Amino acid sequence: MRTRFLALALLLASAIPSRADESALRTEIAALEKQVATWTLLDALQLTREQAEQLWPLVNEANSLARAWEDRISGIHSREIFAFTLFRVDDMAGNGLDPEVERAAAIANHDEESARKRFLDSLATIEERAAAILTPAQRDLVASRGDGLRAVKARMGGNVKRTPGEMPEDVADAVSRIRRVSDEQYPGKRDSLRATLERLLGWSPREEPSMGAYVARVNASMDAIRRLPEGQLAARAPRLLEEARPKSEAERLRGELREIHKDKYGAAGALGMLLANALTRNAVGLKFGMLEGPATVPQRQAAGQIDPEAEAEIRRLRTDINLLNLANGMYFTPHQMRHIHDAAEKMQDLIRPATAREADLRDYRDALADVLACVEKGQAIPQKTLDDAQDAEKRVRQPKGRRRDPQADVAKLVKDVDGILTPAQREVLTDYKACLIPPKDLKNPVRVGQAHDNKAAVQLLERMRGIPAKAWAAKRDDIVERVIAESEERKGKFPGDERAAVRDRLAALCERARGMDAADFELEKSDLADELEFLDRGETVKQRLAEMAGEDEVVNGKIRAFLLDPAMAEVMHERLEMMRAKPGSKSVNLDDVEKAPSCKDGGCAVKD
Q: What are phi and psi of 403, to 5 degrees?
């Protein structure tokens, strides 16, 4: 193992690419865009001196937290690159994983996830304190912050395309009518005002599972709109209307998944990330004269000390490993590999980032620097400066010859790839869940890549069986409740209207397990453990979404996400090259093989 790590270290050290001019320009542009967006947002927030003084210690606390996180994660990244690279080599060979490599990869991956969650959860507590300092309108502005020149143009009242946070004129008129109705007349007109909003915004209340809950939600938003100060109306009303909008079941489930993801991986939001940004500290400190001496992070430097090249390499390795896990379970034929390789290459051409001329990149960089110089000083941006920047941005984002809408071609590629898959492969793809470390004890080996390991569930059932009958009878409900609560901490909380059914189902399953004799339990414990998957709220929601979408849509989505991932082209190419370098054995006619002396009529023994 040490020898492999040493060899890899020498290989990586000798393979560090030099940064090309275009890459350096794009790095400069990205840094300038972040600075323009940060300064513009802070200008739009219109912080008072009192707010700035209250926020300043929180900004410093968040920045210290972020720097400590960056120091920690940089060390973890170096371990991940080593372990994931070796893991990819084993995965590509398809001959099983070196236990030491697997362990190193699993530990590094776990360390990153744990460190990230600790950082984001700690940042969320700072975010909560900062939110109490800002007004509702300021909080909404942070949540819907624009980027770069768009944010500048919006603040200047220029002609930009409407965003979801802005109200069309007819909706703005309806909002005004809601506010103009007297307190005496409002209760009687609330239903008609709600119907007007539904018509203008194209709402479909029939999608709501409970009309009563929907009506109460819309009424609450209209009541809040009536109470808004005039200065907060433009910023707050669109958000209140969005909160009231009827949601389909799929939207609600996707929202629930987002909340589960936050609980699992960290809870900080846009405000927390803004506070942790070194650019925010510099901007607030310079704007309100709070910095003592020079900024601790150079003003022109983008926030973040994590090596972007290391992050990019880790993302590449993770992608390759997930794709290899899937490929290992699909058992592609050489013909299928070539077909998928060609399709993934075509996909790469379709979604390849636009290639801009170096002169246009330089123009855009210089224009952004001019805009930044103005916003840093609190000066109005000359219209010509802004127009020049927008023109350069357009030339960079949409150079001549770029395909505008490749979706029809993508759909054709998806259909072509779907056409070469066997029914069994479609089933594997339907069930596939991306997972870095494949589990070891799968019933079906083609499910490689799925985090489907029921050891913990089996152990839970064994614990339930070990509880004495008297203690179980006295504390059954408390025990079941504790199991559900522990599951919710890691895998998502159940809605209140579903929790009672989950509790009854778990209790019944435990009773079944406890009622079996030892022999029957040993035979059936794995199947019983599989039934406990309903405790994983995140997986339950994903399954429900998949059922709503239908098998064809799920398969098409996974073909698009995995088999047509541009990285799959390289994976298939390497696999094909390995097959050419080590061709399979030639077929043998058994009639020509000398039979062993012990071979009897109809037997197939072959002499060694």
A: -70, 135
Q: Which two tokens stand for residue 459?
A: 């152990």
Asked whether 562 and 432 are in contact (CB, 8 A), the reply is yes
SS3 (DSSP) at 595: strand
**What element of type H or E holds 254?**
helix 249-265
Residues 421, 326 contacting (CB under 8 angstroms):
no
Contacts of 93 (CB under 8 A, 6+ apart): 578
User: How far lies 578's CA from each of 92, 189, 325, 582, 584, in Å?
Assistant: 9, 74, 17, 6, 11
What is the full DSSP assignment across 484-520? HHHHHHHH-PPPHHHHHHHHHHHHHHHHHHHHS-HHH
Q: Is the pTM of this model over 0.90?
A: no
CA distances from 553 to 22, 322, 330, 332, 411 (A): 39, 21, 19, 22, 12
- What are the backbone angles phi and psi of residue 606, rounded to the nearest 5°? -120, 135
pLDDT band for position 77 (50/70/90)?
Answer: very high
List phi, psi (to 5°) of 317: -65, -40
Rounded Cα–Cα distance for residues 509 and 506 (Å)? 5
In Å, what is the CA distance from 285 to each residue of 63, 68, 220, 280, 299? 13, 21, 39, 8, 11
Token duo for residue 514: 């406890």
User: Phi then psi for 484, rounded to 5 degrees?
Assistant: -65, -45
DSSP letter at 320? Answer: H
Which residues are within 8 A (CB) of 121 and not within 5 positions of it... i.e. 6 or more apart? 266, 267, 268
Residue 5 CA to residue 101 CA, distance in Å, equals 10
Q: How far apart are CA 433 and CA 436, in angstroms?
A: 10
**Unique residue bearing structure tokens 């009541």:** 223
Q: How confident is the model at residue 438 (pLDDT cuts 50, 70, 90)?
A: low
DSSP 448: T
Q: Which two tokens stand for residue 285?
A: 């400190």
Stronger pLDDT, 163 or 91, i.e. the higher one: 91
Question: What does DSSP assign to residue 94?
Answer: T
Cα distance between residue 234 and residue 172, in whole Å:
9
The mean-pLDDT minimum among 8-22, 212-226, 374-388, 517-531 falls in 8-22
Amino acid, res. 449: G
Q: Which of 72, 146, 147 is nearest to 112 (CA)?
A: 72
- What one-character DSSP code corresponds to residue 74? H
What 3-state DSSP class applies to 606?
strand
